[in-house]
Amino acid sequence: MRKNAVEQLSEYLAGQGLRSTTQRDQILQVFISAGRHLSAEELYLRVKKPHPGIGYATVYRTLKLLAEAGLADERRFEDGFTRYEYKASDDHHDHLICTKCGAIIEFENERIEALQQDVARKNHFLVQNHKLELYGLCGNCQKNR
Amino acid sequence: MRKNAVEQLSEYLAGQGLRSTTQRDQILQVFISAGRHLSAEELYLRVKKPHPGIGYATVYRTLKLLAEAGLADERRFEDGFTRYEYKASDDHHDHLICTKCGAIIEFENERIEALQQDVARKNHFLVQNHKLELYGLCGNCQKNR
DNA sequence: ATTGATATTGAAAACCATTTTCAATACATA
DNA sequence: TATGTATTGAAAATGGTTTTCAATATCAAT
Ligand SMILES: [Mn+2]
Ligand SMILES: [Mn+2]
Ligand SMILES: [Zn+2]
Ligand SMILES: [Zn+2]
Asked: How many domains, in total, are found in chain B?
């Protein structure tokens, strides 16, 4: 996975007339090895440790670049931060988000996806992408009141 | 509808130890008579015409108040603005949003709602609210390329 | 390898929707 | 009508993100 992602980025950059840089590779490496749904600042802090020279703006720029290259998905939940997650291929999933502890659970549901298409069809609408987020309390947070 | 909403607001304010003001009533009136899914600035501009003295901050504050009072729903689509819509009662709907012209189509789908509950149950999750947005092209925008 | 054109970087400033501050004013209660 | 305080408008502050800019790094052409 790891080496392949770096190659994927290189190919995208070359194809766009952009340049490969050590910063971009380093940020990508840390991004992939870190957990999912990271904000720019969270990633910046993780990148800083092994690569202290890297700047804040470069992390922001690289995350946007990864999204454009198809290597990351950009998510805006209701916490005011843009979050990114590594995207293996063309997989898709939606989210359960705990409003108390911030836990994020991922799920896929074919039937919901199909019904969304039905809704779109009925409204002469062509869906490009969608967002389904369920906010509430995770199992743990229900127990602890 | 109109007079009732003003009364509803008054009751909420009284119950919270807050005060009724002419600004709040004026903003609510314009809010209800304007279209749905308005941003604070859009509402501010509409309010300015009949009530030039009203300030920007008051419109922001009143919209948040209306949401707390249950008179408005707060929506954050992907355009960077918080939008509000008048909420008659406890109705609920989701949205189709055209990425080209910005048109917003509302829909309800019982089966999707039910399946969401299934997903939540399977994950020991208690849903408080949810967001389902389908982004793409409306009928018109598909025709015009 | 060296050059040269230019893409990229880090630091700081700018951006921009929204929130907060604060002194003046309006509301509700006695 | 007086009084305590919630609310207002204007301006400043906030905070995540983007942009600016001079210095540096990349890479294709020598
Ligand atoms: Mn996810
Ligand atoms: Mn709506
Ligand atoms: Zn939780
Ligand atoms: Zn459209």
From this structure: 2
